Amino acid sequence: MNIFRFAGDMMHLLSVVVLLLKIHKMKSCAGISLKTQELYALVFICRYLDIFTGFISLYNTIMKIVFLASAFSILWYMRSHKVVRQTYDKDQDTFRHYFLILACMVLALLVHHKFTFREVMWTFSIYLEAVAILPQLVMLQRTRNIDNLTGNYVFFLGTYRGLYMLNWVYRYLTEVHYHHRWLTWISGFIQTALYADFFYYYVKSWRNNEKLQLPA
C-alpha cells in the first residue's frame, strides 16, 4: 500500500458516497446514467469473483464488499425506488452500452495473460472499466447543465483512475518484484484520457465560479 493507491481508493469511495448522497438525500438521479452504473456493477462482479476465496487483506475484502454493495444499491434506487426512478432521464441515456460489453468480452477472449475463466473475467473487467464512463459523459454533454453533486461524482471518479496510474508508476520504480501488467496500464491510460475534456471544463467552471457546462 502506498499513498497513491490509498488516495485513489479514497477518491473512488468518495465518488460513490457523493452519488449515493445525491440519490438518497435529494431523492433524485437526474443527470446520472443508469447504463454507466450497470457497467460498473458488471465490472465489480467480474473482478471480485475471488472475494470469498482469495483473501489478501481485511482492507481489500472490505473495499470489495463496499463497491459491490454500493453498485447494487445505486441500481436498486434508479430502477425500483418509487420516487428516484421517476427522475431518471431515459430519453437522454441512449448510449448502446451492450456494444461496449460485447467488444470488451471479445477483446478479453483474444488478449489476456492466461486463458482461464477467472483471468478472462478479470481482464474483461479491466477493459470494461476503461470505457464504462462513456454513457455518463455522453449524457452530460446532451443535458449540458450539470448539478454540483453530479459534476463532483464524475470528477472524483476520474481522479481515482489518475491516482491509480501514479500508483502503478510508483510501484514499478520502487518495488523490485513488482510485476506490472501492460493491459492494465493501457486500459488505465485510455480511461483517464476519456476524462480529459470533462476535467478541463470542471476546473474552468471552478476557477470562474460558474455552473459546470459541457459543450454539445
From TrEMBL:
It comes from the Eukaryota. PROSITE patterns: ER_LUMEN_RECEPTOR_1, ER_LUMEN_RECEPTOR_2. Keywords: Endoplasmic reticulum, ER-Golgi transport, Membrane, Protein transport, Receptor, Transmembrane, Transmembrane helix, Transport. GO terms for molecular function: ER retention sequence binding. It is found in: Endoplasmic reticulum membrane. The chain crosses the membrane at residues 55-77, 98-115, 121-140, 152-170, 182-203. InterPro entries: ER_ret_rcpt. It is a multi-pass membrane protein. The keyword Transport applies. Pfam families: ER_lumen_recept. GO terms for cellular component: endoplasmic reticulum membrane. Its main location: endoplasmic reticulum. GO terms for biological process: protein retention in ER lumen; protein transport; vesicle-mediated transport. Belongs to the ERD2 family. PANTHER family: ER LUMEN PROTEIN RETAINING RECEPTOR. This is ER lumen protein-retaining receptor. It comes from Ceratopteris richardii.
